[in-house]
Amino acid sequence: MEGPGVQLIKEKLSFLKGSFVFEVSGNSKIDKKKMLGKELLSVDSVGKQLFLIFEGVVLRVHFGMYGSFRINNPKPDKVPRLLLRFNKDGKKPVDLYFYNTSLRLVDPRELNLDNSVDVLSENFDREKALEKIKSDERVISDVLLDQEIFAGIGNIIKNEALFLAKVHPESISSKIPDDVARDLIDKSVYFSQVFLEHREKGWPLKKVLLVYNRKFCPLCDSKLKVKYVGRSHRKTFFCEKCQRLYV
Ligand SMILES: [Zn+2]
To answer: Of the N and C termini of the chain, which has fewer Cβ atoms inside 10 Å?
Structure first.
């Protein structure tokens, strides 16, 4: 799941703020009881991670590729990783289920909610991102997927941002000129926002994808190249004519 998906989950769960956990279950090995009786103080996300912040303990949720959640509507015949049953103002309980997620309980004092690397945050630090690009010897494809630098960018956003900025995915990060790198950062933020908006409104994403899962370049009609690029080895679509290789 890409970052914007997690941002959206955060928004969907924020109504639970102020409610208390009165039942926990599920097959996760974390010490679930630590959340019992605790008030949910806030819900936050950084990149692809979701944080449920309780008094004294924080649940960190990583959705990976196949993670999901449900509210009051469990998947039949499937034991959730975690079920949290919330009580809000004595009204009907709200059941929150997590499936196929990676869960961890974190001490709130160790929690780092630094969102200056989160492309969807208003605190995203573009200058810091530029410095990272300029000092990295990896291919740009890997740098864009590095969650410590660009939290929230997944493979689809990477593909589209590289195309929009006309940068070849196998360019060496440090060799990309400043103005091009700046443009790439802007395009990454822009496309992440487009991605989020489409998810929020339930619009099909396919219409706005220029290269991902496409066959031909929308600019020059050449056949797009498909390659598993970099150490991350993720499927990458690009136009060899329109996207410049910096090495
Ligand atoms: Zn082209």
So the answer is: C
